[in-house]
Amino acid sequence: MPPTTSSEVSVRWGQKAERNAAGPVRSQARDEVTGLLAFAPFLHACGDALAAYVDATTEAEPALLLVDLEGIHSAVDLGAHVVTDEVVAVMAGRIAREVGSIGLLARTTDSQVGVLFGHLPTPAVALDLAYRIVAAVTSPAALPDGRRVQLSATCGLVTRAVVGPRASATDLIHGAGLAVRDARRSGRNRIEVCTEEMVALADETVTIGKDLRKALAENGLNVCYQPLVDLASGQALGFEALVRWTHPVHGAVSPARFVPVAEQFGLISELGAMVLSTATAQIAQWSATFGVPLAAHVNVSGMDLAQEDFVSTVEESLGVSGLPPQQLVLEVTESTVEPDVDVARRRFEALRERGVRIALDDFGTGRSALSYLQSLPLDILKVDRSFLDGATAAETARAEDLLRGVIALGQTLGITVYGEGIEDEEQRARLRASGIEIGQGYLFARPLPPEDAVALLKVQSTPVDSLSRRLLAAEGASHA
Ligand code: C2E
Ligand code: MG
Ligand code: MG
Question: 351: which residues sit within 8 A by CB, 6+ positions away?
Answer without folding.
Answer: 311, 314, 325, 330, 358
